[in-house]
Write a structure and sequence with these properties.
The complex is a heterodimer of chains A (449) and B (480). Chain A is of the alpha+beta class and 449 residues long. Chain A has helices at 4-12, 79-86, 98-105, 130-142, 148-168, 172-182, 186-189, 196-201, 204-214, 230-241, 292-303, 309-315, 347-366, 371-387, 392-405, 415-420, 424-434, and strands at 17-19, 22-24, 38-41, 47-52, 58-65, 109-114, 119-126, 220-226, 264-270, 277-284, 322-331, 336-344, 440-447. Chain A is globular and about 60 Å long. The termini of chain A are far apart. Chain B folds into two domains: 43-244, Cytochrome Bc1 Complex, Chain A, domain 1 (2-Layer Sandwich), CATH 3.30.830; 267-475, Cytochrome Bc1 Complex, Chain A, domain 1 (2-Layer Sandwich). Helix content of chain B is 38%, strand content 18%. Chain B has 15 helices and 13 strands. In chain B, a hairpin with a 4-residue loop joins β9 (324-333) and β10. The chains are: A alpha+beta (449), B alpha+beta (480).
Chain lengths: 449, 480
């Protein structure tokens, strides 16, 4: 068992040392998860996080920009995703294909990802190649090569990808429609990948504006995790990133509009799908709410793991209501939604599945969860939390994303303890507060012949 | 999203440095000296019941991983019952005398655990990751499922149904179909062929067959447990003995067979996969086992030929000729043999040209001297990538098991891996290229016959198989 008394003691002793811009919270790390992390800010506003671990000669560099699909204006959907692609198409001193080939030759790996709130780029390389990764990331932050030809190439590749995905994933469109029901504002409704019609109309100027507004050091965080010498790393960070000019102040991303709180339900029809499906969501408290730790556990009790309530009752072999079930909390910067997507074995089973979900939620309302079930959920969650630190890449991605989306980044290692302290009574209270009809959104995806 | 496929080489578009930018920005930095690889020593001991226990110290996270290896894979299945080794391994966790499968799954989750099993040609591996505070519970559960499996009839029926749909589902993937046909063609008549069971052959497996396989091979003296985490030999052996001491040894009859022979004649197989737009190519041949010293130069050779998008196959077939979506080469090993594989997805009208280019690339490696800079680049990749592969705990633990247990390789592949690659030179690479690449690889093409009929007729003799591996007929050059 984790030592809760010790955890509480350590947590209460947490003192964040403020030495200029330098914040270190390594000595106060709670419980057995010892993750030394330090943070500082360059003069141009670039935030730097260092997380060292000398177990293997490997290092990851991640650069995340606080920009995603929520920052896209109306009729400009897909801009953030297109820019992610363009970041591999050449910069001031790196020609197309070179970024990947430099990393590959070192034995390393590189990739990127865009969400609603963050766009992130990363390289995992042998430790002796840290400077290479910093050089490459700094070059594309310094000056990206945005030309009509590059934009066109990215556009074609993305449009082709969307078409291919729509062909291969018959339920994909329903995910887009569901977000339009869950969120009331365009910024949060539209898909990260963008609408094909919008992407086709994006101009080079749109892309340049977006890049110069958001891809600036004062809107970015650089994480170095793994095996490296801290003082040398700081020197190199200063060398490669220190002289990049600070950008203009970055406009704050729009806050989500969850609309008027009322139960919402809709039907759509498709001839492409193999079976009836449905999306179900409950609008819950945002990540900075005190209720969030208990909500996180509800997520685990309901749908995480083979023996969670819904997986057990909807998917298990003797009770074949659904052939596919996924879901969990979708956490964004200022909002959170508990979502379920299920492909039912037929239309009747879709209805029955929804009744089964209601019944599980009602069980929460009428009786406390057992200590054993709660303990099991906490153990799975604990393992998942630890696994955020499993590799230098996992750690860098987790820290970079959390830097922009976590309400109190410097307390990030305390998250686990907050969840571990949740009681059955709190779970019950949370269910009564959020898992109620007025927070419910339902989309039935009906099969037509 | 992988960017690799979205990129093309644009000659003449190399950006010019801006006036005024700092000098250090203009070219990539020189790497620091390579940092030493210091992997923990693997301690191995034998417990009273004959179980080999290896302990791999790792301390950076409060978790542990165990890998239990049973030295009996599909090659050990009875000749008439391919699939029995796989079913036995998968049924181990599906019920004991006192625990239902549901209870076992509950217990795994209560460890914060993830349990996986995999059966290959020569062994089955069970992997369990868990919170380090749950070591006792993890070993207790492992003991229960290993020593008292009940193999419930109901679960076997369920497993057959699941496997049946799983195999059908896999048939939808032309790459899986092509690779399976390659293995079938290379291993015809060899015990390895049993690993390629299909949805028909598993129907005959009974509970008695599974029990008999278990009784024969699931013995501590035919197994090894590799435990990775923050613990000492003494603690590990005490705890493991406590929960596994009632697992009783028995004489296990060894199964002898020669490694499968390398293919040495021009053989092209085709599998029809209606609706597939492209042509999937799998070429391969049997090479040396992983214990051979040839493995180090061959790893470098593979990197030169097709290990990454910077390698010759990708640069030629995709970037230069535009024939392929991808083209790679890779190595797979079991204890007694290795496999060298080239895989590519090409446009139907480029099928013949792609095969010619692949053949030329292979021939070039065997006949022409490889430039030093290409060798050094390949070595740099192989060395640099090695520790990255080891970062995740389960992969680290699996690699330790692979080296220490089922491949029995020793420190040459653990702490001396860097130096063994660093000392490879062009002469050694050429030597292994000539030794292993000059025999003709087996070639498998999978795609839609309607789309590929014309190019297939240009290839000479092509043996056509169905997706279950049954030979149908032979196509000859120019035949209508």
């Amino acid at each position: 068992m984790w030592n809760m008394a010790k955890a509480t003691l350590l947590a209460s002793a947490l003192v964040v040392c403020l030495a200029g811009q330098d914040i270190s919270f390594s000595p106060q790390v709670v419980t057995p998860l010892s993750v030394p992390i330090s943070r500082y800010t360059l003069k141009n506003g670039l935030e730097v996080i260092l997380a060292d671990d000398d177990s293997l000669p490997v290092v990851t560099v991640a650069v995340a920009y606080r920009v995603g699909s929520v920052n896209e204006p109306q009729r400009k959907s897909g801009l953030a995703y297109l820019l992610e692609d363009l970041m591999f198409q050449g910069s001031l001193n790196v020609s197309p294909m070179q970024h990947i080939s430099y990393i590959n030759r070192s034995g390393g790996e590189t990739n990127a990802g865009t969400t609603q709130d963050v766009t992130m780029f990363y390289e995992t390389v042998p430790s002796n190649q840290l400077a290479l990764a910093l050089w490459l990331e700094s070059d594309r932050m310094y000056t990206l090569d945005i030309t009509a030809a590059n934009v066109e190439r990215s556009r074609e590749s993305i449009v082709e990808d969307i078409r291919r995905r729509k062909g291969n994933e018959p339920y994909l469109e329903s995910f887009f429609i569901f977000d339009e029901l869950v969120y009331a504002d365009y910024a949060h409704q539209h898909p990260v990948v963008g609408y094909e019609a919008d992407i086709k109309e994006l101009t080079v100027e749109d892309v340049k504006d977006f890049y110069s507004t958001y891809y600036v050091p004062n809107n970015a965080v650089l994480v170095i995790s793994g095996n490296f010498d801290k003082s040398k790393a700081r020197e190199k960070v200063e060398q490669y990133f220190g002289s990049i000019l600070r950008g203009k102040d970055v406009p704050a991303p729009p806050l989500p509009d969850m609309g008027e709180k009322r139960e919402t339900s809709r039907n759509i029809y498709s001839s492409l799908i193999s079976s009836q499906a449905f999306h179900l969501a409950y609008r819950i408290a945002p990540p900075d709410s005190d209720d969030f730790p208990a909500l996180t556990l509800v997520d685990y009790i309901l749908i995480r793991g083979k023996r969670s309530r819904l997986q057990k009752n909807l998917l298990q072999k003797d009770y074949r209501l659904v052939s596919y079930l996924s879901g969990g909390i979708e956490k964004r910067s200022h909002s959170a939604v508990f979502k379920i997507f299920a492909v039912a074995t037929n239309a009747q089973m879709a209805e029955e599945s929804q009744r089964a979900i209601n019944s599980e939620i009602n069980k929460f309302m009428t009786g406390f969860i057992s200590e054993a079930e709660l303990a099991k959920a906490k153990d799975i969650l604990k393992m998942d939390f630890i696994n955020h630190f499993s590799t230098s890449l996992d750690k860098a991605v987790f820290l970079a994303e959390a830097f922009f989306t976590h309400p109190r980044f410097d307390e990030i290692l305390l998250d686990l303890d907050k969840v571990l302290r949740v009681t059955p009574e709190e779970i019950s209270r949370i269910i009564h507060r959020y898992f109620i009809p007025k927070n419910r959104v339902l989309l039935n995806v009906n099969k037509i012949q | 999203m992988k960017k690799i496929l979205a990129l093309v080489i644009l000659a003449g578009l190399i950006p010019q440095p801006l006036p005024g930018q700092e000098r250090f920005r203009k070219s990539p930095p020189v790497p620091e000296p390579l940092q030493e690889l210091k992997l923990p020593a693997i301690q191995t001991l034998r417990l009273d019941n004959g179980l080999t226990l290896s302990v791999v110290p790792r301390r950076n996270l409060p978790i542990m991983n165990l890998q239990l290896i049973i030295f009996a894979g599909e090659s050990f299945s009875p000749a008439a019952l391919p699939g029995v080794a796989t079913f036995t391994a998968e049924m181990i966790s599906r019920g004991t005398a006192d625990l239902s499968v549901d209870k076992i799954e509950e217990r795994i989750e209560a460890l914060g655990g993830t349990f996986l099993c995999d059966t290959s040609f020569e062994y089955s591996v069970f992997s369990l990751s868990f919170l380090e505070t749950r070591l006792d519970q993890a070993l207790e559960l492992l003991g229960l499922i290993l020593i008292q499996p009940a193999f419930p009839e109901r679960e076997l029926t369920y497993m057959k149904m699941t496997k049946f749909y799983e195999l059908l589902e896999k048939n939808r993937d032309p790459e899986h179909v092509a690779k399976r046909q390659l293995f079938r063609s290379l291993f015809r008549g060899h015990p390895f062929e049993k690993a390629l069971f299909n949805e028909d052959t598993i129907k005959n497996i009974s509970r008695k067959d599974v029990q008999s396989f278990y009784q024969k091979y699931y013995r501590p003296n035919n197994a090894q447990l590799v435990l990775t985490g923050n613990l000492t030999n003494q603690i590990a052996s005490r705890r493991v003995s406590r929960y596994l001491q009632t697992w009783l040894p028995r004489v296990v009859q060894p199964v002898y067979y020669e490694p499968p022979p390398a293919n040495d004649k021009e053989t092209i197989c085709f599998v029809d996969h209606p609706g597939t737009k492209d042509a999937v190519l799998y070429l391969g041949n049997v090479i040396f086992p992983p214990s051979s010293p040839d493995i180090f130069p061959f790893l470098v050779l593979n990197q030169v030929l097709g290990g990454t998008p910077n390698s010759r196959l990708f640069m030629n077939l995709r970037e230069s000729k535009g024939y392929a979506y991808y083209a790679y080469s890779e190595l797979e090993f079991s204890t007694t043999a290795g496999l060298f594989i080239i895989r590519a997805k090409v446009a139907p009208n480029a099928l013949v040209s792609s095969l010619q280019e692949i053949s030329q690339e292979i021939t070039r490696l065997g006949r022409e001297k490889i430039l030093t800079y290409e060798i050094e680049q390949a070595k740099s990749y192989v060395i640099g990538h090695y520790p990255i592969q080891l970062e995740a705990w389960d992969r680290f633990s699996f690699k330790a098991a692979q080296i220490n247990s089922f491949f029995r390789l020793g420190d040459d592949h653990w702490n001396r891996f860097y130096e063994n690659i660093a000392t490879v030179d062009a002469a050694r690479v050429s030597e292994v290229a000539q030794k292993y690449l000059l025999s003709r690889p087996m070639t498998v093409i999978c795609g839609d016959l309607n789309t590929l009929a014309r190019p297939l007729r240009e290839l000479g003799r092509v043996d056509v198989y169905d997706q279950k591996g049954n030979f149908l007929y032979t196509m000859s050059k120019g035949e209508q």
